[in-house]
C-alpha cells in the first residue's frame, strides 16, 4: 500500500521525497490547485515573478540544509532588506543606529547610541523585550518608543490580539541592532532560487515513486473515529503524513485553534520603484501591515513594478482562506497540547509542519523538521 501525504507544501513534499528515495510509493493529496504550498510563485500578467502567498527568502546557518535544497534547484545569493515607515519616515529593520538618527535629535541620538554600546558591549543585538526591561531610563525609553510606534500597532493588526497576549518568542523574531548594520538575516546562507520556488518543487517531486493529486480535500475522505484513522470508510493500515491544521483533523472537539490568515491586494505601477526595500511594514496604515515589492524579490530588470499589500485577518474554516500563522498564546498552546495527545494515540499517522505542529517555522526550520521525520519514519 502507498504512503499517503496530506499537503504539498515544503514539509509534505520533502517527506514524500525522503520516503520515495527509501523505495516507498507515495501519493500526495493537495487541496489547492498547485504544488509548493505557501512558497508557490508564478509570473504575473506584467511579466514579474511574484509569490502568491507573501515573501519568502531562504536562509539558514546549516550547511546541510543548504546543500539539500541545492539538489533540486540552482540558488543565487540574496540578502533580504526590510524596513518600516511611520510618521512619514523610513527606517531599516531590524532597527539600528540609523533608526535613532532618523527619529532622534542629533545630541540625544549620540548620547543614546553611546549608552547602548556601553550597556550591550560585545553584543550585536537584543530583543525588544530585553531592552524594555533595562534599568537605564533612556535606553528603556528607546525600546518603549519603538514598541509604541511599530511593535504594538503592527502586532495588533497582524495577530488580532494585544501584544501582552502574544508569546514572547514572536516579539523576539526581529531584534534591535547596536550598529549601523543592515540586512534582515545574519545567516551564512541567504539565497533565492535562480528560476523559481515552483521549479524547486517540480524537481523535488520528480521521482517515479511520487504521484501528486491536486484539488483533493483530504478531510472529506479521512476521519478519526475512536483511536483509529479511517480512509474512505476503512481503517488505515499504512503510513499517513498529515501537514494540515490539527484541530480540523479531529473535528475541532476541543474548539478551533487560532490561526491568522492573509488577504493580498495586488497592484502594478509604471513607476520604477514603490518603496526603499522589498518588504516594508506600515504600522500606522489602515488595515494592511506591509507591502512586498516583488520586483525587488528577487531583483527583476523590467519596466514598472508589481507589489502586494498584505491584510491580516482571522482564519475561519470553509471561507476559502489559508491558515498562515498559528496565534501562539498560553491558552492556544494548552489547547493544542490536547490535540497533540489525541494524535499520538492514532496508529499509522504522523503530524508535522507549521500547522500540524502549531509552530511558527521559518523555511529552514520546516525543512529540518521534515528531513528528521522522513528519515525516522518507520515504514
Describe this structure as you would to a colleague.
- With 379 residues, the chain is an alpha+beta fold.
- Helices cover 30% and strands 24% of the residues.
- It contains 11 helices and 22 strands.
- The chain has helices spanning 10-21, 63-70, 97-103, 106-119, 128-132, 137-159, 168-171, 197-204, 246-249, 330-344, 363-376; strands spanning 3-6, 26-30, 41-43, 49-51, 58-60, 75-77, 82-86, 89-93, 125-126, 176-177, 189-193, 210-214, 222-225, 228-231, 234-235, 240-242, 259-269, 279-281, 290-293, 305-314, 325-326, 349-351.
- The strands form 6 sheets. It has a 7-stranded mixed beta sheet. The protein has a 5-stranded parallel beta sheet with strand order 12-2-1-16-22, covered by helices on one side.
- A hairpin with an 8-residue loop joins strand 18 and strand 19.
- Helix 1 (10-21) packs parallel to helix 11 and helix 3 (97-103) packs antiparallel against helix 4.
- The protein is globular, with a radius of gyration of 22 Å.
- It starts with a strand and ends with a helix.
- The model has no long low-confidence stretch (mean pLDDT 93).
List the helices and strands and how they pair.
Elements: E1 3-6, H1 10-21, E2 26-30, E3 41-43, E4 49-51, E5 58-60, H2 63-70, E6 75-77, E7 82-86, E8 89-93, H3 97-103, H4 106-119, E9 125-126, H5 128-132, H6 137-159, H7 168-171, E10 176-177, E11 189-193, H8 197-204, E12 210-214, E13 222-225, E14 228-231, E15 234-235, E16 240-242, H9 246-249, E17 259-269, E18 279-281, E19 290-293, E20 305-314, E21 325-326, H10 330-344, E22 349-351, H11 363-376
Parallel strand pairs: 1-2, 1-16, 2-12, 7-18, 16-22
Antiparallel strand pairs: 3-4, 5-11, 6-11, 7-8, 9-10, 13-14, 14-15, 17-20, 17-21, 18-19, 19-20
